[in-house]
Amino acid sequence: MKKGIISIRRKGFTLIEVLVTVVVIGVLAAVVIPAVTAQVGAGDSSRVTSDLNNLRTAIENFDIAVRQFPGDVDDLVNLPGISASSGPQLDADLNRTTYVGANGWKGPYMETSLPSTVTSSTNANATGVAFNTGYSAYIDNRIVPCAIGAASVCDSTGSTDYATVQVRNLTAAQANTLNDLLDGTEPTASSTSGKFRSVQSGTVYNGYYYASPFK
Questions:
Q1: Is the dihedral of CA 154, 156, 160, 165 positive or negative?
Q2: Which of 19, 37, 45, 49: CA 20 to 30 A from 26?
Q3: Domain edges within the chain
Q4: What is the CB neighbour count within 10 angstroms for residue 65?
């Protein structure tokens, strides 16, 4: 009489198989996570540079039509002197002078205004309005006049040389990246040359984009 052969099926995984799986997952994570993070960062920097370049084009087209530089980003979307939310009101150009040639306005010069995100006057400009952009940064509604100072990001005491857009709440690395993309150089975080300049303010860096020469 032949004895029956009993087949014993193994359940679960051996320790070696578990260790191999863990190692493979770790290697994949080490490769994939930095790549994904880099892509996210690249998207943020691309958004900031795109917003700034779109603003530069809009400011230049506004100046051609109105013969004055806009005083804020909202003037590029809504007819100066008219507030979409509060009705007719006086509006001012780059040098805080009431518009005299707004009849030449052929806007909007941007498809839409940047999405508003900041309403605290401590984090934005005097009107308490700023707009979302890439990273965790925001762009001030107020466009400011800047003179080229020897050692200053924005010399407001001299004659106006540029209509300037302000970018706030950057890290040192983000300011360096934007400087590299907009000026082709990557110096220290505090930059006082080129179209994009930045300066440390507390724990963050604020950028000044010299959007258009003042004529």
A1: positive
A2: 45
A3: 15-213
A4: 15
143, 59 in Cβ contact below 8 A? yes
Residue 204: both structure tokens together: 């963050």
2-36 pLDDT tens trace: 555 555 555 666 777 777 777 777 777 666 655 44
User: What's the predicted TM-score (pTM) here?
Assistant: 0.69
Angle between helices 172-183 and 15-66 (to 10 degrees): 60
Mapped onto helix, strand or coil, the DSSP state of residue 82 is: strand
Residue 183, by phi and psi: left (phi above 0), alpha (psi -120 to 50) or beta?
A: alpha
In angstroms, rounded to a whole number, what is the distance separating the alpha carbons of residues 170 and 207?
8
Q: Give 201's pLDDT tier (boundaries 50, 70, 90).
A: confident
Burial (CB count within 10 angstroms: exposed 0-12, middle 13-18, buried 19+), residue 37: exposed
CA-closest candidate to residue 72, choices 46, 44, 96, 49: 96
Residue 210 CB partners (closer than 8 Å, separation 6+): 146, 161, 162, 164, 194, 195, 196, 197
Tokens of 101: 């040639």
CA-CA distance, 200 to 105, in Å (whole number)?
Answer: 37
Measured CA to CA, the distance from residue 185 to residue 204 in angstroms comes to 20
